[in-house]
Amino acid sequence: MGPEQKYRIWLRDTISKIKSPYTISEDSLCLTISETESDTISDNNIMNCVNQHTHWDNLIEEIKLFQLPINSKFVFNCKYSCRYVPTNISSMKYDSYCEYDNITLIDDKCTYEFDENRGSINSVRVNYSNKYYIIELREDKDGLLKKDTVLCGSN
Length: 155
Description:
8 strands, alpha+beta, 49% strand
C-alpha cells in the first residue's frame, strides 16, 4: 500500500473524531485543523491556562525571551493550525506540522503582535501610547541572543 492510500484510509477513519473546525484539500491529501483561542491570563492562573491549551507552553516560553514589561493580567489570543499530509516513512500514516497566526497579547497599556516562523517567534510589533515599535531577536556571531528595537512611527 502506497503512502497516499495509507493516508486516505487514516483520514477516513479519523475524520469523525475531529471536534475542531477543519478543511480537506480537493485531492484529499491535506487535512488542516484550525482553532482560534483566547484566554485572560494572570500571574495566578498562567499554569492553568497553559495546561488547558497544551500547545501554548512553547509559545509562552518563546514570548518570555523578549523580556517584555507585561502586566500581571493580560489577554492572549492566537490561531493555531495543524496540517496533516502523507509521508514516505513506511512506519507512519501521516506527517504533520503546526503553526500559529495572529498571536496577540493585550494588557491595559500595550498591544503586542508576534510573528511566528517554524515554531520560533522572531519579532513583535508593540503599540504603546500610539507609538509603534518592532522588536527583533537575532543571534550574534557567538550564538548569543540579541534584541533590537526600532521605533516605526506614531499617530
